[in-house]
Amino acid sequence: MANPMDTDAGSELFSNYEAELKLVQADLNQVLDQIAELAGEQRKAAISRAGRSVEEAKELVGLACHNARLHD
Known about the structure:
Elements: H1 4-35, H2 40-70
Helix pairs in contact: 1-2
């Protein structure tokens, strides 16, 4: 049987990942909305920022999945 403390810690950790992912998603949505209005170097910079946000989101999802397997 799982230790209740492990379950609580796992739930809190998952909640933290979820909150971080929501922040990254909000930032990405903001950048994506701006890209259409930008040109030249500003557009390139925004696209790079969007790419970094996607990579950060992938990392957070990977960490959440990894920790979920540890708590199974």
